[in-house]
Amino acid sequence: MIVVVDYGRGNLYSLSQALSYIRVQHVISDKASDIIGASSVILPGVGAFGDAMDALSDRGLVGPIKGAITDGIPFLGICLGMQILAETSEEFGFRRGLGVIPGSVRALPAPLNDVGTRIPNIGWRRLIWDNEDSMIHGLKKDIMVYFVHSYGFFSSKEAVVATSKINGCNFPAIVRRRHVVGCQFHPEKSGAVGLKILENFFK
Questions:
Q1: Into how many domains does the chain fold?
Q2: N or C: where does the chain have the smaller number of CB atoms within 10 Å of the terminal CB?
Q3: Which of 79, 91, 149, 183 is catalytic?
């Protein structure tokens, strides 16, 4: 059973539609037992880091998520769901994350002298390959995906599969540590490229 975690902070409808389009049978659940028994887990997320961590904690889902990851269950974090995988965040003060992938969540740089991209970073941006990985199998190098975020997950170099660039800063767009993957962009809103990345995860 493939489980999309519902903790009140995710773009569940669009993600569910995308999964159905690529014929991935799944359930949307806020039950710890479903996460523990899942064959794969997807953690979407929209909003602020601390609020998301509180929402997971209030629902008793932090332990089951960590347990699923420890047990080797394939895990995909999307947007804020990727950032939660970090050790720490500085968004609205210091907060601890799940600590699954080394790194910290920090603010994206603002444009200098009104020249550059406004924050939050909203829109289509290019992906830059950093490491070969099965998540980007079959994709060309010159592709665009859709972002909506003000903070980035700055991880160790070996964990970064792909980056994107804003205001002179390269920030991780895909991170991976063994069976745990994070996408800063929204694959469910990134057209054929996003659907291909989702397919690659399940393969």
A1: 1
A2: C
A3: 79
